[in-house]
Specification:
Layout (H helix, E strand, L loop, with lengths): L2 H9 L7 H4 L10 H4 L2 H9 L19 H15 L13 H10 L3 H10 L29 H4 L2 H9 L29 H13 L1 H7 L15
Helix pairs in contact: 4-5, 7-10, 9-10
Length: 226
């Protein structure tokens, strides 16, 4: 119902708009939602919706659910998809599992960040922290620093590997084809290792960012005695 309206509005400012582009500006499909998102995040989102995709022309309304009503919806989505709920455990979320990977590959997350921040890949469209890609706001993709709060690791991994498997009309390409890894200067390894590294970075982004945080500018050290 909304698709032709969005196309008509966009044609007024961009006569050459591609019809397929408009699907990304509409509310997302809810098929597979239970296996896509973390139960705790979905419960909070239903109670207090926040922006996820800047390009969306509609915002999720606040329905003033009671907590028990939101919890019932969360349980419903998980049950439909046969997903674990309400608690989600995945070894990739454990710091110990990440530490084991980093022992064999010390630059594991740093290499993944090089892929994310390369202008040919993620930051071409995605918001990352305080960074916003230049250009048309309708081309902006979701904030990556919050992925670890919202999505399940399996979904993140499979989405990076092949986005169109989940959403045929998505504008996100297959950045790391199975038989064609990205430059070894960014992350040395094959395609599977690179997708794994990006998944680990996104699922541990908060911890990774905190490692780089310095409080020196906020903590005044006592002056050295003469």
């Amino acid at each position: 119902l909304l698709f032709p309206v969005v196309i008509a509005d966009e044609k007024q400012i961009n006569p050459n708009v591609k019809p397929d582009d408009a699907w990304g500006w509409l509310p997302p499909p809810l098929i597979g939602e239970g296996k896509k998102v973390q139960s705790g995040w979905l419960h909070r989102f239903l109670l207090n919706p926040t922006m996820i995709r800047p390009a969306a022309v509609l915002r999720m309304p606040k329905f003033n659910f009671r907590s028990s009503e939101a919890a019932a919806l969360v349980d419903y989505f998980a049950a439909v998809d046969g997903a674990d709920a309400p608690y989600v455990y995945d070894p990739r979320l454990d710091e110990s599992s990440l530490a084991e990977v980093e022992r064999s590959k010390p630059d594991h997350l740093e290499g993944a960040l090089k892929i994310v921040t390369n202008n040919n890949y993620c930051v071409k469209c995605h918001l990352v922290g305080s960074y916003a890609p230049p250009g048309n706001p309708k081309a902006l993709a979701p904030q990556l620093e919050r992925v670890h709060e919202r999505l399940r690791p399996d979904y993140v991994h499979n989405w990076i590997a092949n986005p169109k498997r989940y959403l045929p009309y998505t504008g996100m390409p297959v950045n790391i084809p199975y038989d064609k890894p990205v430059s070894q200067d960014l992350y040395p390894g094959d395609s599977v290792q690179q997708v794994d590294a990006l998944t680990d970075l996104l699922m541990h982004y908060d911890r990774f960012a905190k490692k780089a945080l310095s409080l020196d500018a906020y903590l005044k050290q006592p002056a050295e005695p003469p």
